[in-house]
């Protein structure tokens, strides 16, 4: 059984208690990251929602990390991910290409909720992140955390680096 992570799942060690047997770089064709999900509790509020990540259909491929587990761990892994990601991020089976070229079917948390941020510029998204504060931290810290996860994994994603650069430029003023 495989799981594909593209955000915090890539680097926070969630997989260790479940006996992950393999971890490697992977790509999810047909998708990319976007900061267009509005967090109104964890990283923001109703008044100041935080832009958080979700996958969007695209011509490219989202670079991330794939985790392999034994079939005996399947129920535990799914239960943990369902609790962690919530009902609006159901696990969907998608074809993922591993770094060795092998293609596998992986479970991927795909946002299917209604809290979307539509039609905002990079400048406006950065402003939202700066204003946002929720029960698990700020919008700025979330963007910095995601950027750190990707950097440690050796992944460069313009959706992340451009937003972080805009936030840091605005905070420096």
The class by helix and strand makeup works out as alpha+beta
* Secondary structure tally, helices: 4
CATH class: Alpha Beta
Strand content: 25-35%
How many runs of DSSP E, i.e. beta strands? Answer: 7
Share of residues in helices: 25-40%
Tell me the overall shape: globular
Determine the N-to-C terminus distance: 48 Å
Mean pLDDT: 95
Strand order of the largest sheet: 1-3-2-4-5
Q: Would you give an account of this structure?
A:
It is built from four helices and seven strands, in the order βββαββαββαα. It has 173 residues and is of the alpha+beta class. The chain has a single domain, classed as Gamma-glutamyl cyclotransferase-like (Hypothetical upf0131 protein ytfp, Roll). The strands form two sheets. The protein has a five-stranded mixed β-barrel. Strand 4 and strand 5 form a beta hairpin. Helix 3 crosses helix 4. It is globular.
């Amino acid at each position: 059984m495989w799981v594909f992570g593209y955000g915090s799942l890539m680097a926070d060690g969630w997989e260790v208690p479940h006996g992950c047997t393999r971890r490697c770089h992977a790509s999810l064709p047909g998708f990319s990251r976007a900061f267009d999900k509005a967090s109104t509790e964890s990283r923001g509020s109703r008044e100041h929602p935080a832009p958080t990540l979700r996958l969007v259909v695209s011509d490219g491929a989202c670079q991330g990390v794939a985790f392999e587990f034994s079939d005996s761990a399947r129920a535990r892994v799914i239960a943990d991910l369902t609790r962690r990601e919530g009902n609006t991020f159901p696990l969907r089976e998608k074809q993922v290409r591993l770094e060795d070229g092998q293609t596998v079917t992986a479970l991927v948390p795909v946002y299917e909720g209604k809290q979307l941020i539509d039609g905002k510029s990079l400048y406006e998204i950065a402003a939202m992140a700066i204003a946002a504060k929720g029960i698990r931290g700020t919008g700025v810290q979330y963007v910095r955390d995601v950027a750190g996860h990707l950097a440690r994994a050796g992944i460069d994603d313009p959706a992340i680096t451009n937003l972080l650069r805009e936030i840091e430029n605005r905070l420096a003023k």
